[in-house]
C-alpha cells in the first residue's frame, strides 16, 4: 500500500453506487477537516505525502480513469494537474518528483477542494444514468473506491507523522475520555493456539472485489504450527527493551542492526522517554504508553528481533491466512478507522485465552514473507498494470488491517506490503512457533 | 545578509520611535498579506525560509533581546518558541535544524500573527515611557529595526522562490500595467566612466546606524579605474548566452564550471525558454524578459564569466565604494522594495551616458572581494557577537542594495555577502576595467 | 555469499585432510598469482574487496576459529590483524569499515603471504596429530575449507571487476585459443521441458557438509511447470536489447527501472559497444560477445525484465531444486573455476534438446524467491551464528553455481544470495513457465 | 597548489638545463623509493592522489606541453595515458574523475616508471641540442620543473596521509636519531616584532621565474602592525586545546564550527591521544608530540580560532610579504624537503627573540586573505591559462613554503592556496596584531 491497488471485480449495477461513492469521498475530506491549511502542505519525510496531495491525487484518479474515459464532453479541471498529481504511473507521463511534493504550496487547499467538487459533480451526473455505463466502468468505480480508502489510511498515518515533527506536539483532535484512559488491569498473558497444517488454499476465493495481488488462489503446504492469541503488547515490548533488546546485535538482521545504529533507534517510532516513563505521540498529542495496548509503529526489523528475543518467530503469510480462516476471523469487533471518531489507535485485546484476537484490525501484522507475485499472477494491461506488479520484490507482506484501515476495506486475503524499515504505519507483532 | 546584522549606533530618544517601529513591523506583515497560509510553510531549498518562520523569527528577536531584558514582568508568548525561531545563535541554545524549517506546519500562521501582536503590544507599552529606558535599549531597538528590514528583503526573495516551484507559475500579485510593459526602446549602450584612485577611506564615516562589518573606516590604496555607467542588461547578457557563454569553460572559475555542469545551468535563475523567446518567473508569474532591464538572479560565477567574456572584470568592493562616493550616489530615484507596491524588479536605467546609474537600488552588485573583516574589526560580546563575525570567510561582498531592499535600509558603506553560487537574491552585474 | 557461510557437517577424520587443506589454500594464492601487488589493494566499488584482503581474511578465519581455539601456545601473527581482517562478525569486535578496505596499502601483500605461511604451518602441525583433535575441530576445518572456496569465487569476480575499471582493459591472463574462438554455429533454440509437481522435499538430505541455510529439509507443494533446457544466451538477450527492452518500463520492477535510469544501464555489466558490435570485458581483456554463450553479469532486475519480455518467468528456488533432482543434475561436465585454467567464463550448451543443460555450473541462476530461513531454521550459537541468519531478508536466492565456483563446492541444495541489483557475479537467466 | 602552476619566465639557455632536469626528475622517484607498489595506488581521500598518479601526471606534463610540441617525430608512450593522467585541463579533453584515481591498479608502477624513462630519454635528446630550441621551449621547461617540484611536495604529504590510514602506523622511513629527539628545553616565548606600514609593493619583482599569480607587482597600503617572531608551537596549541578551544564556538568561524562538530575534531590532523599523552603520525610512524616544534596540519579554521583565543589575528598576505621583505627572509637555514633526508617535519625555532624565524620553510602560514587575482592579472592563452586563474575564488592564501617544499622552489612572493578546511599539508600558524 506504499503504492498500489488493483482490480478483480465483477461489474455490477447497484442502487447504492452514488451513495457509496459520496460516503467514501466524504470520509477523505472529513479526515482533513481538523487540519489547518498549513498542515496539508508539508512532507517531513519522503514516505509521507502532504494531505493536500492525497486529496488531489485521489481526485486525479477519478478524473483520469473514469471521467476522461466515460464522461462525454468532460472538461479537465486544470491541464497541469495531471503532472502534479500523478503518483507513479509511467504510462501516464512525467510527474513531480516524489521527494518534492512538500515544496508545492500551490495549488492551494481551496483549489484542491474545488477540484474535488468539480469531479464529484461530474461523477454524480454520470451515476445518475447507470444503465448507460458499461460494465468496465463499474469495475473502475470499485477500484477507485478501494484506492481512495487506501489513501484514507495513508492520510491518517501521514497526518500523525506531520504533526509529530513539531516540538509543540499538537493534537489533531481534542483529547477524548477514551483515549486517555489506561486499561484498568494488565492484559492477560498471551496463549499459544495450535493451527493444523496441510495443503491449504490461499488467495481470494470469494465473490466481490479484490486486488490482483490476491490472485490466483492456490494451494500451499503448511506445516502445523502455533500462533499467539493476541498481538504483542507495549508491556511485552518494554520487557524486550529493558532486557537490552536494542543493544544486542544477536537478535537482529544485519541490515536492521546497521540501521538501528545509524538512526539511533531505542524504541518504536513516536516513543519519548520522560520523567514519568515512556510516552508516545498520538492524534491527541503526547500520551503515556498504555502497557495493555498492542505495540505499534515498529519496523519489520524490530518485529523480527522481538520474536528472536522471545524465542519465537513471525508467521509466514500462508500461515497467517490459514490461521485467519481456521479461527473464522471477521472484521466485526475489530478496531478500525471508523471505530474511534477518526482517532486511530490499537486497543487492548479481550481476555479470553482460548480465542484468537485482533487478527483483523488494530495493527498490520508483519509476516516473514516477501511480497512476491502468486504463482500464475499476471499484470493487467495499460496503466493499471503498474499498480501492484512492479512492487513485487524487496518488500514484506503485512496482513490483517489496522486501526487506520476503513472497516469495509479489509479481507483475510488482503496483502499489504512495506519495506522492512518502515515504521510510520500502524504495524504490530504477532508471534508464531 | 544570508545571516547577519550588527550595531554601531548612537542611542537617542526620538518622538518617532514608536511610529517607526510600527511602520517597519507593518511592512513585514504587508509583504505576507497576498500569501495563503500554505505559502507560508514550505522551504523548497535550504537557503529559503518559510515566510511564517521569518515572521516569527523577527518577533523572537524583539522578545529575546529587548523584552526579556528590559520589560519588567514580561511573559514569553510560548516557551518552545525560543527553540523554534532561533536562527543561528549558539549562545542562545539549540534550535531547529535549518533544513527542517519547512517541515513544521505548527505553530500555525495565526499563532505566529498572535505572537507578533503580543510582542508588539509589549513593545508599545515600553515605548510609551521612553525616558525610563537606558541608552542600550535604543541601540538594540535600532538593531531590531534593521534586522527586520533585512528579513523583509529575504521575505520578498524567498516568496518569489517558493511560488516559482509550482508549475502553475502562480502570481504573488495581479499583474500591473507597469510590470508588463516592455521598454519602448533599447537602453543606451553602456559607457565607461573614469574614477580617480589614490588613498581612499572606506567604511562607515557618518552619523547614525551601521552594522559592525562596516567598521572601522580605514584607508585603502585604489588604482585609477573605469566603471560602467549602468548595470549589465538582459540584452547584454543574452548576447553572452548566444555567444555560447554557458558552454565555454574558459570564461569560468573552476568551481563555477563544475556547478554549471552538475546543475545544467544555461541561463539566470527563473529564466524559461518558450516558443516566443525567453521568459522569467516574477512576482506576477511568467513574463517576457525585458531586454532593457538589468539582468538579475545571477551567481558570482555567472557575473564573473560574463565579465571575462566581455573583456572586463568585476570591481572590488573598495573600488565600488570609492566610485559611489565619487559619483555621489544616493538612494533617491533608485528602485526599492517600496518603489513598486511590494513588487520587486529592477528597472531600465536612465539614458544619460555621462551619469552613473543604478549604483543604489535595482540589483546587488557582485564584487570581486571576499567578505572579510576590516582591519581592526572585533566581534561584539555576547550573542550579538555571532551576527557578522562568524561569516567572514568563503563569501563575496555585494554592494548597493536591490529592488527588494527597503529604501531607508541602504548606505554606500553597506556590505552584503553571499556564497558565490547563490542566485535567488536580486543580484546583478556591473563591469569595471 | 555476499557474505556468509555455515556449517552442518558430520565430523570425521580422514587421511586426506592435510592434502585437502593445502590444495584449497594453494588455489587461493594461485588465483592471485597473475596479479601485480597494485591489483591486490584497490576496491573500486563497495561490493568488491581487494584481493589482498581476501587472502588475509580467509587466513584470519583459520587463525580465529581454529588455531586460537585448538592450537596450544599458538602465537597470533599480528595483534592488529583481527581488527583489519574481520569481515562482519559483531561477536568478534570492531573492524575496518567495509567501504575503506581499499584505502589500506599496508600490510603489504608480502606480509599477507607471510601471514598465510605462518597460519598454514601451524595448521599443518595440528593436522599431523589428528587423533588429538576433537570432532568439533573437524567441523570447523570443513567450514574453513568451504569458506575459503567461497572467497575463491569472490576473488575471481572481484579481480575481474578491478581490472575492468582501467581504460587499458588489461588482461588477467594472456589470451588462450579457447577463449577467443566463437562458437562455430548458433546454439540450438531452447526447448521447454516439463517437470512434474507434487509435494517435493527440498533442502540438504545427503551425507556430508552443507551450510545451515540449506536446513532443515522440508516439504513444499510445487505445481507442475516447464523449464527451459538451457540458459538464456547472449543472442537471446541481444534480441531483448534490440527490441527496446532497456527503454520500456513495462517489463521492469519499479526499483529496477529507477536504477536503470539512474545508472544509465543499456546492457549487461562489462558490455561495451564498438564499431564492430558488442564487446565484453573478460579475464583476457575485451573480447567480442559470443552469441552462443550464456548471458551473464545481469542483475535480478534484468533477468526478471527479460523473462517478462519473453512471456515467461523465473523459477522459484523450490522449482529449481525440484527440477535439478528430476533431471539428476551433477557437476560433471559443467563449467567451473577449474575448468579453464582459472579463466572463468560460461560456455555454450550442448545441443541435445531433450536434456536439461547447465543446471550446475556456468552461471548462478536468479530465482524469484526471497532468501529467507527455511521453516525450523535456527541460528548457531556464538560468532558462527552470524554467518547466514542475519542476511535472511531483502535478498534473492541464486542456484547452481557458476564458472567461478570450485567444482567440489556445489550441491543441488546450495543457496547463494544477492541483492537484486548486483551484477558483478557470474549470474545468468533460466526461464520457467 | 591544490592544483596550479604558471609561468613568467625569461627564456634562457644555460649549460645546466639537462642536469637540473635530471636532478628534479630524480627527486620525484627518490621520494617514492621507500614505497611498496601497494602504497602507490590508493587514494584514501579525494584531495590525495596516488603516488603512481603523481609520477605519471608529471611525466604527462612533459610529454604534452614539450615533447608533442617540440620533439619532431616523438611517439607518445601510450595513447590512453592522456586520458588517464590529465589532471584538470578542460582544454585537453576528458579525464578520469578525480575521485576515481585510487581505483586504477593499472598501468602498474613499473609501466609508469618505464613511461618516465621514455620521456626522460626524449627530453635528454632534445636538450642535447639546446641551440635548436626556441625561447618558448625554455619557458615551458622551467614551468615543467616548477610543476614537478609542486608535485614533490604533494607526494610527501599524500604519502604521509596514505600511510596514516593503516592502524599499523607504518613508517615511511626507519626512525632517525634526529626525528625522535625532543627539544632539550622549551622553546623561548614568542615576541612581537613591529613592522612599519606604508605603501608597499607586493608581487614578484625579481629576475627569473615566478607563477602568473604573483603578477603584476603592485602597491598596497599596509598599516603598521606587529608580527610574532616565530610560528605557534605545539605547546602553545596544547594550551588552546586544554583551555577548551575545540568546545567553544565563540572562537570559530561558523562553517568551521559546523565542520568541527560533523567531523569530531579535537586536535590537529594526525594527533592521537594515548596513555602517555599526545602522539602524532609522522613519516616514522607514531611519535610523541614535541612541544617545541611548530604546530602543523591545522586548517584555516583552527588557525583562525587559535588566533582569536590568543587575542591576536592572522596576517594578511600583504602584511606577510611586507614583513618578509622587512626582515630579509631567505631560504637559507630553513627546514625544507631536502633538509632531513626526505623526512619532512617542521623544527623548533632558534631562540633569538629579536629575529623573525621560520618565515620561509617549516610550515605554510595561513593568511587571512582570499586567493584572488592581483589587479591587472590576466590568464594566459591556451591550456596553460587553466593553471591558476580558474581557482581564484573560495580559497585562502598561504605563504612561506614548508618542510615539504623543495628549497629552491620558494620565493617571498610565492602564493600557495587551499580551501579553509584542508589539513593534510604542512600548514601552520603565525600571529599578527
Automatic annotation (TrEMBL), chains A, B, C, D:
InterPro entries: CTDL_fold, DinB-like, EgtB, Sulfatase_Mod_Factor_Kinase, SUMF_dom, SUMF_sf. Residues 21-154 form the DinB-like domain. GO terms for biological process: ergothioneine biosynthetic process. Keywords: Iron, Oxidoreductase. Residues 191-433 form the Sulfatase-modifying factor enzyme-like domain. The keyword Cytoplasm does not apply. The keyword Nucleotide-binding does not apply. This is Sulfatase maturase. The lineage of its organism: Bacteria, Pseudomonadati, Bacteroidota, Cytophagia, Cytophagales.
Amino acid at each position: 500500500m506504499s503504492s498500489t491497488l488493483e482490480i478483480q471485480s465483477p461489474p455490477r449495477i447497484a442502487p447504492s453506487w452514488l451513495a457509496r461513492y459520496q460516503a467514501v469521498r466524504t470520509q477523505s475530506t472529513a479526515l482533513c477537516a481538523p487540519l489547518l491549511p498549513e498542515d496539508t502542505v508539508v512532507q517531513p519525510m519522503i514516505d509521507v505525502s502532504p494531505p493536500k496531495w492525497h486529496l488531489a491525487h485521489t481526485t486525479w484518479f477519478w478524473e483520469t480513469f473514469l471521467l476522461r474515459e466515460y464522461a462525454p464532453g468532460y472538461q479537465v479541471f486544470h491541464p497541469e494537474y495531471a503532472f502534479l498529481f500523478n503518483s507513479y504511473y509511467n504510462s501516464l507521463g512525467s510527474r513531480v518528483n516524489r521527494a518534492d511534493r512538500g515544496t508545492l504550496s500551490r495549488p492551494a487547499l481551496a483549489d484542491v477542494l474545488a477540484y474535488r467538487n468539480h469531479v464529484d459533480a461530474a461523477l454524480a451526473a454520470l451515476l445518475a444514468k447507470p444503465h448507460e455505463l458499461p460494465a468496465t466502468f463499474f469495475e473502475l468505480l470499485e477500484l477507485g473506491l478501494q484506492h481512495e480508502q487506501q489513501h484514507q489510511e495513508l492520510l491518517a498515518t501521514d497526518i500523525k507523522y506531520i504533526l509529530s515533527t513539531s516540538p509543540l506536539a499538537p493534537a489533531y483532535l481534542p483529547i477524548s475520555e477514551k483515549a486517555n484512559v489506561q486499561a484498568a488491569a494488565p492484559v492477560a498473558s498471551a496463549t499459544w493456539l495450535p493451527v493444523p497444517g496441510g495443503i491449504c488454499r490461499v488467495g481470494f476465493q470469494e465473490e466481490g472485489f479484490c486486488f490482483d495481488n490476491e490472485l490466483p488462489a492456490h494451494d500451499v503446504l503448511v506445516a502445523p504450527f502455533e500462533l499467539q492469541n493476541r498481538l504483542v503488547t507495549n508491556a511485552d515490548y518494554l520487557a524486550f527493551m529493558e532486557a537490552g533488546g536494542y543493544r544486542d546485535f544477536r537478535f537482529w538482521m544485519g541490515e536492521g542492526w546497521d540501521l538501528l545504529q545509524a538512526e539511533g533507534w531505542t524504541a518504536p517510532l513516536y516513543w519519548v522517554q520522560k520523567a514519568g516513563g515512556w510516552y508516545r505521540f498520538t492524534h491527541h498529542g503526547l500520551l503515556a504508553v498504555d502497557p495493555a495496548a498492542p505495540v505499534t509503529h515498529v519496523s519489520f526489523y524490530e518485529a523480527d528481533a522481538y520474536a528472536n528475543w522471545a524465542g519465537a518467530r513471525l508467521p509466514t503469510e500462508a500461515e497467517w491466512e490459514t490461521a485467519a480462516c481456521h479461527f473464522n476471523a471477521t472484521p466485526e469487533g475489530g478496531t478500525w478507522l471508523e471505530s474511534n471518531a477518526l482517532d486511530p489507535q490499537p486497543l487492548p485485546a479481550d481476555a479470553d485465552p482460548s480465542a484468537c484476537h485482533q487478527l483483523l484490525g488494530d495493527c498490520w501484522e508483519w509476516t516473514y514473507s516477501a511480497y512476491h507475485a502468486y504463482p500464475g499472477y499476471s499484470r493487467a494491461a495499460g496503466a493499471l498494470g503498474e499498480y501492484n506488479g512492479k512492487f513485487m520484490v524487496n518488500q514484506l507482506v503485512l496482513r490483517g488491517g489496522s486501526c487506520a484501515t476503513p472497516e469495509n476495506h479489509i479481507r483475510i486475503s488482503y496483502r499489504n506490503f512495506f519495506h522492512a524499515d518502515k515504521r510510520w504505519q500502524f504495524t504490530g507483532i504477532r508471534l508464531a512457533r
